[in-house]
Design goal:
By secondary structure, the protein is mainly α. It has a single domain, classed as Homeodomain-like (Arc Repressor Mutant, subunit A, Orthogonal Bundle), CATH 1.10.10.60. Helices cover 63% and strands 4% of the residues. The protein contains seven helices and two strands. A two-stranded antiparallel ribbon has the order 1-2. Helix 1 crosses helix 3. The protein is elongated.
Length: 114
């Protein structure tokens, strides 16, 4: 399998499992490579570690559906497979550049419940 094929498989796997808390072992197993070998290939070809890339995908999804942050008892961070609210806030702030609360206030998004 080519390196680019492994990376494409990985990205597809991450997108399909964006709502799960995946480990490096889970991801490397999905492309049938060892963790260290695949982590090296991925970083070399994308410029990101696998987990950094996964967090960027989660944040992109988060920003695109941010109006669903709270809908009853369902929180968006739960929909992304992030259990720790403090980690979620730090990750969001690092990638988006502002806290979730400030982002929500700035965008003045109405909460939409299904």
């Amino acid at each position: 399998m080519k390196k680019t094929d492994s990376i494409s498989l990985c990205v597809n796997y991450l997108q399909k499992h964006i709502d799960k808390p995946l480990s490096l072992n889970d991801i490397a197993s999905a492309v049938n490579l060892s963790v260290s070998h695949f982590a090296s290939i991925f970083k070399k070809n994308t410029g990101f570690s696998i987990i950094e890339y996964f967090n960027h995908l989660k944040t992109q999804k988060l920003v695109s559906i941010y109006s669903l942050l709270i809908c009853g008892s369902t929180k968006l961070r739960d929909r992304l497979g992030i259990e720790d609210p403090y980690y979620f806030s730090r990750m969001f702030t690092k990638i988006v550049g502002t806290s979730p609360n400030k982002y929500r206030s700035r965008k003045k998004i109405l909460v939409i419940c299904r």
